[in-house]
Every structure is written in structure tokens, then in C-alpha cells.
Amino acid sequence: MNRLHRTLAIAAATLGCTAAVAGRRPTTDPSVLATEIDRETDHVSALDLAEQIMRNDADLRLYDLRSAAEYEEFHIPRAQRTTVTDLTRTTLPANAKIVLYSTGGAHAAQAWVLLRMRGFRNVSFLREGAYEWTARVLQPQLAVDATAAERAEFERAKPMSRFFGGTARTGVARAEVLQGYWTGAANDGSSVTTAGATSVVRRQGC
Amino acid sequence: MIAPFTSSGSISETGALIAAPLIGVGFGWFLERGGLGNAPKLAAQFYLTDLRVFKVMFSALLTAMIGAFWLDRLGLLDLSLVSLPDTFLVPQAVGGVLFGAGFLIAGLCPGTTCVAAATGRVDGLGVLGGLFAGVIFFDLNYGRLEHFYLSTPREGFTLPHLIGASEGVTVAIITVVALAGFVLAERIERSRA
């Protein structure tokens, strides 16, 4: 072993062995997370998620945080069921596009914080969970007095609804249109069940 | 190009397309200068008479591992953006056996095959033809192979997860094993010379 080899070996041994006491990677700064929450870049819309699924995005990892019974009854295609506890230790590709959803949005938002603190960068969640998927993708509705923006969203959702085996409805009375943050209304996800969507989605093997 | 440069926006897609062939040419150049375009020299490692492949590959692995670890810890590189391919245990183990057998028979692996072909070696051109035939055969039969290809998935499975140690401890263990391997390789080569 010549002198250069010996020097390189000593350098590698020093840097390699001190790695053992280098400590853990610094966790994500909470202020960074706060900024993302303020800017609402922490969530993905059901329509954007539907597009990712339709183009078969290989990096997409979709997780359903609801109960096993709810998952069995209905889940978004490509979703795997998991729990918040499992997400704290599961192994995931570092560049995965992780999308989370629960019944409403609370559990998914909590899981979002945990995954971001674990260092995953590309994490988002459905703000109103399975309800949002049903209302915006599976059963989009166009009110009789729809605005131009509502009409544009409906036209975007119509082929998605067909793709996922749902039904798009036109001429719906304003009072019957499913409300959510996208219509400017807050919703806790309890005003509609996903049971109606179950049978049609099951036809696609879910 | 894989992350992190494109993901962090420090290199555009066009920049990545320009950088990729430059990196490829550099990689091929150093493989050739390291004598890795020569099939008999490569095959010699299996007979323990010339272990340069082991030494070159482990040097590269060790340099990249230690460099990436410390750049991440110093905040200069975000390892969470680096692409980590999914693990499929059984199909990848079978692929490894197939790869090893092909390496022993041909005396070349995919990278060195390109180097050998680029320098005009007939064996390199032959293996390159076989390599493309294999790729096309796999693609045409993917439907039948898909079930096996995607079996035993473990997502982004890494050594720290496997041994239950931190990334730093894993880096230290691999460093010690690699350095011991270099010393052992030199001794084996001397005893066989």
C-alpha cells in the first residue's frame, strides 16, 4: 500500500467512523411547516389527485387513514390503508409523492406533519378527505345557476367521474349541491357518506 | 437526471439533459482508464487474481456514501430528495444471480460493455447486442413476468432499516467493512501473483 492509498484510507476511516456520532439529520424547521400551512401548499385537491392517478404517476403513494371497515367499503383507487403509527416507521422512497386522506381531514393533516418532520418533502393531503373525493370526482354536480368557475370545474371533473365509475349530474338545485372548501363553505365531512360511491368503485376492483 | 438538482430547481430539465451526456462520457472515460473495458481483467476477479473491479466499485461506493452523508449533515444536500428505487426482494435476488452469471460468462457488466463496445472490442459489441435483445425480450414478455417482477415489495428499503441502526452507524460499519475488504483484496492478489 503506497502513501497515497494510506492517506485516502485514513481519511475514509476518519470521516466514515465519525459519521456514527454525527447525530441525526436535523428535522424540518417548524416555521417552514407553518409557512406551507399558511400558504395552503400542504394539501392537494381531489381533482389534481384524480389526474395523478389517471396518468398512473409511478411516484404517487396514496394512503387511506380511515378504519379497515371504511376502507373495505370504499377507497380511492391505488390507495393503501395505513395508520398514523405505521406512517411514523414505514419505509418510503425519499422522492415519493405522498398523498394522505382520512374521513374528513384531521387525521390526514396530523399524518402530514409527522411525515414532514420525518424529512419527506413531497407530502400533501385531501383537505376534506374521502368526502371531497366523492363530492368533486365521483359525483360532481352542476347547479342550475352555476357560475363560470363552477361550470369550468364541472367540465374538468366530468371525464374523471366517468373514468372512476361515478356519475356527473347537471341541473341540480343550488341547495342540493355538495358543499366544501372549494365552494367557500366549511365542511366536517359528516354531511354525506361515501356509501353511494361504493358499488360503482367496487366494479373497478377496489 | 434524478433528484436533487432538478427537484430543488438548481438545474433545469435542459441543464440536466446537457449534464447527463457529460457525466456519461466522464464515467466511461474513467472506467476505460481504470482498465475496466477489458473482459479478461474483469473476469479475473472471479478467480481472485485481479480484484480491481471490487476495489474500484467499493472506492466509488465509499466516496459517494461518505460524501453524500456529510453533505446532507452539513445542510448542503437534501438526501430526502434523492431518488431511491423501490425494493422487490425475490425478483431482485433472481436478477442478481442472472446478472452475476452473465458477468462471469461475458466478462463485462452493462457499463463496461458500453466502454468495451465504444473502444471497438468485438466482445463488447456482442454483449451489447445481447443486452438489447434481453431488454426487448423482457419488454415483449412483461405481461407474463409482471406478477413476479412486482412480488415481495419493500418500497424504499435501506440498510439502516434492515439492521435497525442509524444512518451514521451504518456508514461507519460499511466504511470499516470496505477498508478491511481492500486490505484483504491486496493480500489475496499478492498471494495469487
CATH superfamily membership of the largest domain in chain A: Rhodanese-like domain
* Count of distinct strands of chain A: 7
Beta-strand portion of chain B reads under 5%
Strand order of the largest sheet of chain A: 1-5-4-2-3
Structural account:
The complex is a heterodimer of chains A (206) and B (193). Chain A is an alpha/beta fold and 206 residues long. Chain A is built from 9 helices and 7 strands; from the N terminus they run ααβαβαβαβαβαβαβα. Chain A has helices at residues 3-18, 30-38, 46-54, 68-73, 84-87, 106-117, 129-138, 148-163, 195-202; strands at residues 43-44, 60-64, 79-81, 97-101, 123-126, 141-143, 169-172. In chain A, the strands form 2 sheets. Chain A has a 5-stranded parallel beta sheet. In chain A, strands 6-7 form a two-stranded parallel ribbon. Mean pLDDT of chain A is 83; it is low at 188-206. Chain B is globular. Chain B folds into 2 domains: 1-33; 35-192, no CATH class. Chain B has a two-stranded antiparallel ribbon with strand order 1-2. Helix content of chain B is 71%, strand content 3%. The longest helix of chain B is centred in the C-terminal third of the chain and has 26 residues, at 167-192. Chain B has 193 residues and is mostly helical. Classes of the chains: A alpha/beta (206), B mainly alpha (193). The interface between A and B is medium-sized, with 27 and 40 residues.
